[in-house]
From TrEMBL, chain B:
Any one GO molecular function term: UDP-3-O-[(3R)-3-hydroxyacyl]-glucosamine N-acyltransferase activity
Protein name per its UniProtKB record: UDP-3-O-acylglucosamine N-acyltransferase
Keyword Transcription: no
Transmembrane intervals: none
Keywords of this entry: Acyltransferase, Lipid A biosynthesis, Lipid biosynthesis, Lipid metabolism, Repeat, Transferase
Enzyme nomenclature, EC number: 2.3.1.191
Assembly behavior: Homotrimer.
NCBIfam families attached to this UniProt entry: PRK00892.1
Broad enzyme group: transferase
Role of this protein: Catalyzes the N-acylation of UDP-3-O-acylglucosamine using 3-hydroxyacyl-ACP as the acyl donor. Is involved in the biosynthesis of lipid A, a phosphorylated glycolipid that anchors the lipopolysaccharide to the outer membrane of the cell.
Protein's organism: Limimaricola variabilis
Amino acid sequence: MDLREKVIAIIADQAMLEPADVTPEQSPADLGIDSLGLVESIFAIEEAFDISVPFNANAPEESGFDISSVGAIVAAVERLVQDRHAAA
Amino acid sequence: MNYTLQQIAEALGAEWKGDGSLRITGAAEPGMAGADDLALAMSPRYAEALQQGSARAALVWPDADWQAMGLAGAVIAPRGRLAMARLTQLLDPMPADPGIHPSAVIDPSAEIGADVHVGPLAVIGAGAVIGAGSRIEAQASIGPGVRLGEGALIHSGARLGRNVVAGARLIVQPNAVIGGDGFSFVTEAESHVESARAELGQGSVSADADPTWHRIHSLGAVSLGDDVEIGACATIDAGTIRPTRIGNGSKIDNLVQVGHNCVIGDHCLLCGHVGLAGSVTIGDRSVLGGKVGVSDNLVIGADVVLTGGSIVLSNVPAGRVMMGYPATKIDTQVESYKALRRLPRLMRDLAASRKG
């Protein structure tokens, strides 16, 4: 399972959908994930990839971690994983 | 029921379109609606289901293309759940048999207002005053000295203790108990509980010489404002000297416990399983989610929101949103939770760096 599939599996799990039903352009709200559900998804992502997501649950737009869509989340996780490899 | 579409729109204070003379005999979910039902389709996600049912009229969202959905008429609901409030009030069939059942036991000194219904085996105590148009359902008991405003609806099996006073339109769901005695006991000398509280964090106490709990009686009853609703099996304890108070328009859900001497403001919501210890004060318009607990003698300000399962151990200023145990501001709580969730990885990293 590549990074993209893993992130989508985590989001699908929270949305109680099949990963095949989750598309990159959907937002967490489209998938029925509320703010606390999103916090849980982000913890699961942190644990799966051993990264720290700079995420502010109270002001998501200020956190520098784009959560506007599934595709944006995948891209942001890719960057964080690359940064971690670069730092190691 | 039998209304025209126009009559329903007028009762809802809503706009209607199409054939206002359509006869409506019931309400139904869009997919299951028959030809004479008003389909409840207040958001676009019901558009598809509307096609599966056979409704000719529906309650729809503001810019719905009702004609394209095959409807002959529509009532526009800008705020779906508010329309539901008014529609369900209109459709709820109230029993049409006011009168005193012969098996009801009513003290001769009780004053029963006009058009009051008292169901079988209900009991009304000495000096009670029941406001006009009230319904006391089967097996409810109304204690001595109780005063109910007009239009009360006391469902079956509910109990109102002595001297409980309520404003107009009180609704009490089955088996609720209002005005039972408070849970109030005291020892001869300072008890180990009091010393535990005074020396917070001490962790141990010594046994009391005399552990007897002396009962403090509850003489204060309960006072409820206008338009209060009390849920099934909820319990509101009587005050010690003055009444336990619940303000106008406040609604209390099933299985809520309100301790003696609490003062709850106007328009509050206490959701299922809320527990208030004694002498808690809650300001107007505050909302306590399900299973919220509040320790005794605390003050919660007006317009506070406590999220489900929060346990409040200290006073809460007005306008605050609180969460968790101990309840803290929701942003602080979410930050703490994030740190807690990251702790296992942090510990692993720490252990690895010590080895390295």
